[in-house]
# Entry
Amino acid sequence: MQGYIEKAGIPHELLDFYGELRAIQESYVEKCSLSLKASGTAGSSGAAVSKVSLLQQIQPVFDTGLFIRVFHDITGMIARHRPGLEGLAAIERIPGPLLSQFFAEAVNRSDNRSFDETLSESIYGKRLSATPDINPGLLKFIFTNSIKPFLKAFVCSFEAGQVTAAENHPVCPVCGGSPDLGRAAKHDGQRYLHCSLCGHEWLCKRLKCPYCLNEDHNLLSVIIVDDIPGCRIDVCEACGSYLKVILDETGGMPELSEMADIETVFLDVVATRRGYKANGGRSYALEP
# Structure
């Protein structure tokens, strides 16, 4: 992806920030995996049914104390990069029991709401609306990135090929997250969606919006950016959303890079300038 970085002119400060964030998350994945194995709920089943993720079906037991540690490590990292950031001090004062409650609601939801819907309801709900100086957008960014090591450990608890789901599953069949990227396989032209939370990929029809599920080909189109080869932007006129798609020229790319979303940020600039919006989970909702 180095070519994308050079062409897009992404500031090194941004790459350093997200590089450190990814390092924190990766350092906790193994710890999360060990706690999952100890609970006996890892990799219990592999068949996702329509609109119900494996996370909802299995409801694995996660270590809430470990989550609070991840949360505070990421909060501390942000404080080092952005000292005095508005709302950060108030977030650092959120009691552990309340963080644990948010965490439990996000991973153990029993209805068909997506992860993003559940989290938004918790964060923007009455429990925090009365708390002074809370920045809900910043809190959502920290919380979302704090939960990723647990969901990554959960998806890794399944053996290769064990997770099965119907084609065009509306959300990630493993955790219920929204796609942040797509990957197009050159050998057969099929498009795979990449989960913004756990990193799982699943097959989705090429002529279908992954967000509003529109299949009218007259309302679906593609933006090609000549300066950024190997990528495209799939757009939907019905809901105004876009999806960045990485072209898999090798036919054997196992998964997208952890930094692929950041490294293709120039595509977001192109799409938003044309009036489209990003409906999936965004890795870089906070600029350092």
Q: What stands out?
A: The CA atoms of residues 1 and 257 lie 9 Å apart.
